[in-house]
Amino acid sequence: MTVTVVASRFYASEATGAAAGKLVVNFALPHQSVMTSQEVNQVDLSAVSGDLGILADHVPTIEQLKPGVIDFISDSGSQKYFVSGGFAIMNPNSVLNINAVEAFKLEDIDAQAVATNLAESQRLASSAKDEITKEAAAIEIELYESLQSALLGKSK
């Protein structure tokens, strides 16, 4: 018996949305489900491939998230979370699954603590004696710079 598997790709205009023009979001952390089947109008996020604005019927894709803000936009307003990384999986049925290692509401982040930790990480990077310490500090610097940028964008 021979089985033939046919794969299909859709363009956004050809996909069929399950939520009548709404994007359905599942947002999970290892220890918590942040959103389950939440209907939104749009999700803006930062991926390794670039910044994305995702609407219902978006082309199916898998994106690696980089440190940055995920903005969930609905009729009732906007919810912004800072994520340190993870994956976003857009399905052909207008369901977006986001899995992140950690996420924090942007409004809960202390800008002064971010500035202090960024300065300390930069100090560690400049005084590091070995490559492992330099690389660890570089990762922290990238994270704190992304946090600082997100907080500055929040106040606009």
Summarize the structure.
The chain is α+β, with helices and mostly antiparallel strands.
Helix count, DSSP H or I runs of 4 or more residues: 2
Helix content estimate: 25-40%
- Give the CA-based shape: globular
Number of strands: 10
User: What is the straight-line distance between the termini?
Assistant: 62 Å
Biggest β-sheet: strands ordered side by side in the sheet: 2-1-9-8-5
Radius of gyration from the CA trace?
A: 19 Å
Overview features:
156 residues, alpha+beta, five-stranded antiparallel sheet, 2 helices, 39% strand
Structural description of this entry:
The structure is a single chain. The chain has 156 residues and is α+β, with helices and mostly antiparallel strands. Helix content is 26%, strand content 39%. The chain contains two helices and ten strands; from the N terminus they run E-E-E-E-E-E-E-E-E-E-H-H. Strands 2-1-9-8-5 form a five-stranded mixed beta sheet, with no helix packed on it. Strands 4-3-6-7-10 form a five-stranded antiparallel beta sheet. A hairpin with a 2-residue loop joins strand 3 and strand 4. It is globular, with a radius of gyration of 19 Å.
